[in-house]
Amino acid sequence: MNIIDFIAGAGKKITEDEAPLTPEETSVKLVQVAKDLDLDTEGVEIKVEGDTAAISGNIMSRMVKEKLLLAIGNTMGIAKVKDMVEVESDEPESVYY
């Protein structure tokens, strides 16, 4: 499991409401963020605890996995992304700087 840090106060807003979302509502909104970017979320689960999004499941390609992790992390209110996603292909892993 990898944890990727982001800036919680930056990124795409997922709601215009002033009232905070429940973790379940936030998870649903984050899945929609991925779908809006045409990322395949089938077989993927996103759970939110505080400012951390935990992403698990299986994805066909590393490219989709990396785009998904970045899309979720670059959402307002998310400071950390726990990467628990398995990739089904044998592509080499990217290096984050």
End-to-end distance: 18 Å
Q: Quick check: average pLDDT?
A: 91
State the share of residues found in helices, binned by percent: 25-40%
**What percent of residues are in strands?**
25-35%
**What would you call the shape?**
globular
Largest sheet: 4 strands, mixed
Number of helices: 2
Number of strands: 4
Structure description:
There is one protein chain. Helix 2 (62-73) links the parallel strand 3 and strand 4 (80-87). The longest helix has 14 residues, at 23-36. This protein has a four-stranded mixed sheet with strand order 1-4-3-2. With 97 residues, the protein is an alpha+beta fold. The chain has helices spanning 23-36, 62-73; strands spanning 2-5, 44-49, 52-59, 80-87. The protein has two helices and four strands. Helix content is 27%, strand content 27%. The two termini are 18 Å apart.
Keywords, please?
alpha+beta; 97 residues; 2 helices; four-stranded mixed β-sheet
Describe the structure in brief.
This protein is of the alpha+beta class and 97 residues long.
Fold blueprint:
Layout: E1 2-5, H1 23-36, E2 44-49, E3 52-59, H2 62-73, E4 80-87
Parallel strand pairs: 3-4
Antiparallel strand pairs: 1-4, 2-3
